[in-house]
Amino acid sequence: MATACGEPSAPSPDEGSCFTAYLPACDPPNSGENTHLKPQESDETPNTTTKEKRKKILVVEDDKDMQQYILSILGNTFRTTACDNGEEALDEAGKENYDLIITDLMMPRMDGMELARHLRADLSTSHIPIIMLTAKDDEASQLEGFKTGIDLYIVKPFSSGVLKAQIRALTTNRERRASAFNNNPAASAATLCDNETDRLFMEKLDHCIEQQLSDSSLSVDSLAAELSIGRSLFYQKVKAISGLTPNDYLRTYRLKKAAQLIRNGDMRINEVCYQVGFSSPSYFTKRFTAQFGVSPSEYARQASTSSPV
Hints:
Blueprint: E1 19-21, H1 50-54, E2 56-60, H2 64-74, E3 79-83, H3 86-95, E4 100-104, H4 112-121, E5 130-134, H5 139-148, E6 152-155, H6 160-183, H7 196-211, H8 220-226, H9 231-242, H10 246-264, H11 269-275, H12 281-292, H13 296-305
Parallel strand pairs: 2-3, 2-4, 4-5, 5-6
Antiparallel strand pairs: 1-3
Helix pairs in contact: 3-4
């Protein structure tokens, strides 16, 4: 349903009813039939960050009133797209890079559970966080949802404030986990992964890097080729899981391996530098210090006297 404050676009009727709505700061749509769905003005977020504005959320809901309600909650903060069922959403998720998917459970053609299974099994979508909204509050349904790989299970009716708070908590927790991985020399990529598809991808990536670790010319393109994955999807996957670009992830892996070798104490720092693929000891020292907040020599000293930082 078009409104004066929205700019929806829709494909031709035979292509389904998946559409995109960009909702600027204005009153949310209200059909007049379900006035209880209209969010309170206090639910708006005046200090929306630029990062949030860039995030793209796919809303999958067959009930039009509920669909419009969710769009009105999120439209001022995020970029939103809506689909009527899991089948349409699965197709849409394969075309665009989404930061989050919010799906109903009970829907025609493909329900939320089946959608979650497909998303988690596909490398191109397995990393996307999933929030399930449903009126089914029984324990069995919740357990099944978590087994399929959803991140949050929210029971209807829900408040707009709770939904937005849950979205922020979910994204913030992932960002904190990525930060902890990047700053902790001993943290492995497994700590970043919530499902088997992503774990296998990161294991293969790490194996490819490890096999060519001393090669300073190792490139992102060659890693993507070895994994038989397109460069665009490779960038998307690594960035979504680790919060790093592939180049930054490669450098972080080298530095973490360097920290391990330094802790072992079997090599001099210059030897470690070349072993992990740095061609300049001064640049290696600069990057190591920036990554872990301590120079390689100081790290070696601490490792020899106590637990590593």
